[in-house]
Amino acid sequence: MKFSKKVDFGAVGGIGYQSKIGLGIDARYYYGIQKVSETPSASLGDFKNNTIQASIFYIF
Asked: How far is CA 46 from the centre of its chain?
């Protein structure tokens, strides 16, 4: 039984800030446009991928 599709399409957006000393923060969001499951089931439903990513970094 196939559970999911092999390819996923989505849109990505993000924002970041880097200070003069090289310290920075970053945030991104991925919104899935395409439904993931091949066939919707009663237990899993019909869903899309969504992801949030946050990071702190230092560039020297």
From this structure: 17
Nearest to 57, CA basis, from 31, 27, 22: 22
Domain ranges in the chain are 10-58
pTM of the predicted structure, to 2 decimals:
0.69
> Of 39, 46, 54, 48, nearest to 11 (Cα)?
48
Query: Any residues with CB less than 8 A from the CB of 10 and at least 6 apart, and which?
Result: 30, 31, 32, 33, 34, 48, 49
- Residues 20-60 pLDDT 10s: 999 999 999 999 988 887 776 666 667 888 999 999 999 98
Per-residue b or e along 6-22, where b marks 16 or more CB atoms closer than 10 Å to that residue's CB? eeeeeeeeeeeeeeeee
